[in-house]
Structures are given as structure tokens and as C-alpha cells.
């Protein structure tokens, strides 16, 4: 895969003799939105720091935009990074803050009106950051991360503490950037909210990659049942009574026939729930522990 934005091949990292990243291999491609999920300490931030060139792997190959990220500044303009807890100088306005980051990236300090608009800060751009809410700071963090149309955008826990509206906006911006060809890597604990946002999910457990695929692929691999719930008079075949409704667990292949049978039996208030990313993630962790 020559046009990969990021290549990891057998990457390892230890801190003080404790291995926190084990033989990690994967590629990220242009236009992909990839979720990096894992519990605390799974090694997500360490991977992001390695991609930024802030931490060096002990072994293996790591390439970002065709080069070793720890060598020089070739990729700085083409990289965007939103750290987990973003800090800005409180007495700077958003405009001054962005001018500062633009200079660091070698971009013009002024002329970022469209960016303020895009992140919803146009009206607050000339107010000091000290008066900003958490959401506004996060918007500013996102603005600095997407300065200069990065080809690789690394977002570390970008939605923690955001309200649902801002979360949706953030994912909207991420989708736009990916459509324009950027690679976006989002690390997260909040697995369920990623449904529909990331085209691919990398599941990490204690420094190891334990699953890699689209949501559909992970669903298929996990083989977890969907749950059909409904109300009905009588006792539908194969259904279990849970509270005031009936419940049937179904594989993918069983869904059409079971839905038909439920309808024919006069089922009402029908819901069909597929396993969530949380269920799938728990499944892979259980399998790993076994
Ligand atoms: N500079 C460091 N020195 C020593 N140990 C470190 C250092 N940075 C990270 N670690 C350890 O490496 C492991 C992986 O940490 P990392 O921050 O990459 O995990 P994470 O998946 O991002 O976790 P979280 O979700 O809590 O941010 C953890 O056990 C952490 O304590």
C-alpha cells in the first residue's frame, strides 16, 4: 500500500522495561476515519505520540506520510493533533491563539475566518480564552488541529466532555476532512458513540491490536446475536418472556424469518437491536482474556 498515510510494522515500545506496545502492525489510508479504541493504558496515546515523533519506537518500522516522524519537520504542516486535554494561554484571544499555531506550522498568521466559522467560533474569536467554556476550548482545539488542511488528523479522546450537539458537529467536520482525503485517527473510550462515525475500528488491549475491521466485519467476527423484542398475545415459538415483552436472540441469517414469523403472530412494538460496539468490544476483550 504505497499511498498509506501511516505505516506501522512490528512497532514496539517499552517504558522502564515494561512493554506498553507489542508488535503493532497496521496501515492507515487517505480518506479513512479510524477509531482507536481501548481501555485506560491500552497504548492509544503512545501510538499517537509515536506518529507525532514525540516518542520513538524501540523496534519496528513507523512511517508517517512517507517518512520517520521523529526525523525533522517535514510533516508538521500536514499533521493535525488535538491532545486529550488541550490548554491555551488564557489571556490570548482565539484569533491570537490560532495565529500562534499557524506560525508554528509555517502558515500565514491571519486569514482564518473560514476556520472560525467552521468550528462555530466566529462571534467569539476576539475574546480571551479565559472566558471560554469547555466546549469553546474544544472548538478552538479542533480549529488549531485542522489548520492548513492536514493530511493526517490525530484526535486523542476528542469528544470527552462534549455535549451531543458539539459532538455531532465535530464528527461532521471529521467526515468533511476525510471526504477531502485526510486520514483521521480518533482515540476513544466512548465506544458506542462511534457507531456510524468511523469506517474502521482498531481495538487495542494492553498494547496489542486485538481486532481491526469495519463495524460490519467486527460484528460478523464477533458473531454476537441481535435481539428482537416485541409484544404479542399468546406464546410465540422460541421467544423468552422478559418483563412485559417477548425476546428472541438471532443470528444475522435468522433475522428475516424471525421477523416474518413475529409479524404473522401479530407482534406489536417490534424492535430489533444489533450488538453495540460496546458489546463487540467486550466480546473481543473476553476472548483475549480466555
Ligand atoms: N512517559 C511514560 N513513562 C512511563 N510509562 C508511561 C509513559 N507514558 C505512558 N506510559 C504507560 O504506558 C501505558 C500506555 O499508556 P497510554 O497513555 O498510551 O495509554 P492510553 O490507551 O492512551 O490510555 P488512556 O486512555 O488512559 O489515555 C500505560 O500503562 C502508561 O502508564
Brief summary of the model shown:
With about 290 residues, the chain is an alpha/beta fold.
Give the SSE map.
Elements: E1 6-15, E2 18-28, E3 33-37, H1 44-51, E4 59-64, E5 79-82, H2 94-104, H3 113-118, H4 134-146, E6 152-156, H5 164-179, E7 183-188, E8 200-205, E9 208-213, H6 215-222, E10 226-231, E11 240-242, E12 245-250, H7 255-264, E13 268-273, H8 277-289
Parallel strand pairs: 3-7, 3-8, 5-6, 6-7
Antiparallel strand pairs: 1-2, 1-4, 8-9, 10-12, 10-13, 11-12
Helix pairs in contact: 6-8
Bound molecules: adenosine-5'-triphosphate.
CATH superfamily of the largest domain: P-loop containing nucleotide triphosphate hydrolases
Protein structure class: alpha/beta
Query: Over the alpha carbons, how many angstroms does the gyration radius reach?
Result: 23 Å
Number of strand segments: 13
Distance between the termini: 34 Å
Number of helices: 8
Q: Report on the biggest sheet.
A: 6 strands, mixed
Give me the side-by-side strand order of the main sheet.
Answer: 5-6-7-3-8-9
- Proportion of residues in helical segments: 25-40%
Tell the overall outline: globular
CATH topology of the largest domain: Rossmann fold
What labels describe this entry?
binds adenosine-5'-triphosphate, ABC_transporter-like_CS, 13 strands, 2 domains, six-stranded mixed β-sheet, globular, transport, 29% helix, four-stranded antiparallel β-sheet
Structural commentary:
With 290 residues, this protein is α/β, with parallel strands linked by helices. The protein folds into two domains: 29-42 and 76-220, Rossmann fold (3-Layer(aba) Sandwich); 225-274, no CATH class. It has helices at 44-51, 94-104, 113-118, 134-146, 164-179, 215-222, 255-264, 277-289; strands at 6-15, 18-28, 33-37, 59-64, 79-82, 152-156, 183-188, 200-205, 208-213, 226-231, 240-242, 245-250, 268-273. The strands form three sheets. A six-stranded mixed β-sheet has the order 5-6-7-3-8-9, with helices on both faces. A four-stranded antiparallel β-sheet has the order 11-12-10-13, covered by helices on one side. A three-stranded antiparallel β-sheet has the order 2-1-4, covered by helices on one side. It starts with 5 loop residues before the first strand and ends with a helix. The mean pLDDT is 89. Bound molecules: adenosine-5'-triphosphate. It comes from Paracoccus salipaludis. This is ABC transporter ATP-binding protein.
